[in-house]
Amino acid sequence: MFKEEEREITPELLTELSRTLLSRSEAVINVILDLVSMREKIRNKLWEIGALRRLPDYPQKEIVGYAIDSSFVQALPLVVGDFFLVTAGYIRYPRLPTHLKERNAGLKVGVRLSNTMITSMRIISSYAHTIERKIGLDLVRKEEGINTILIDGPILPLYLYYIPREKLYDEEKQLIDATEELIRESKDRGVSLVGVVKRVRSRFIPKGFRRVLEPELGDKYVKMLDISNDKSLGALIMMSGEAVLFGKLGVSGPAYEAIITEEGSEGWLKDLSIAMYGLMRWNLL
Length: 285
Known about the structure:
The protein has a domain at 65-196: Nucleotidyltransferase, domain 5, CATH 3.30.420. It is 40% helix and 21% strand. It is built from eight helices and nine strands. The protein is globular, with a radius of gyration of 24 Å.
């Protein structure tokens, strides 16, 4: 057995550590103070152009609907191909006083056997999200009185629109079709679709508002727009209950700058309004 080496912590070492931590803490404090200053400049500019707004503390009408989520694991390689299993479930809010359990909650299992040469997580993920949207479509069509469907992750698989359709997996094409069908059906029936994104890696805020924020940040801090994502920048500028509104994709402005590329957009996408809602309260001191 190996014996863990014990290191002596000498007074000299403690003194050096204290000196180093003190100098580092001063640098960190200076960065925090600078961020506080930048934060107010960014917030004021977004308020000025009407992009940052305070939302009502309570919805105008009671939320009635379903939350949908799915789960999957890495594919199991077999002789005949790669086997993978997806479970997707839904739960209603508020619950109904009924003996019909499927009205309040349900579970659907999907099983696929892929015999392609390369098994990609894109295939499994797209298949899982397609099941979610099919569950949502079924609920929207048969459940009267609901006004909200919540789905884990973004409603629109935006990255798929930047890949030529001929290079998409079949599962990804099915996901696009299922998403578009769910959006159309929900719009016709007055149901709001909400995508709950926990690990935000998009860069809509720094891309969409770059032109108006660059003069506010100056040469010293303009790099923030190159290295920050929506999670970091959104947490910096938004208070709980506030939202950043980008506008419609089809109109020249923040939404267009953030998302649309030279490939253009689908017709129904042009009428889509984009916004980000802040759920956290940001505190530095």
